[in-house]
Amino acid sequence: MDSPSDTVLVVDDDPSIRFLCRVNLELDGWTVREAGTLAEAREALADGRVDVTLLDVHVGVSSGLDFLEELRRDHPGLPVALLTGSVGTQAVSDVTADAVLAKPFKLDELSDTVRHLASRPTHSAG
Hints:
By secondary structure, the chain is an alpha/beta fold.
């Protein structure tokens, strides 16, 4: 079976969500890195290649939406899917995420979203 070689970074303060994503994506063949805080996410991005990021809108008291702006500035072309229970709110509607997964999401939605984002050609910064 063909397995992807891409790395997915899951940024969520809820360990059960990170576990759910990691186990299911690893079963699909992805390499998964986890971050429970934005500081851990920054470390993961600095330490190695990340091909897709799954980002919770609320990471503890921190804003995933503010972090998304940072990702767009510092890692142009990195596909980002937001994980949120706030689908349809103005704050989520106004962001430049590549995909939005509404919590609770189905596991096939998770897999399909990551596969789609990883297969897209990267955006050029120009």
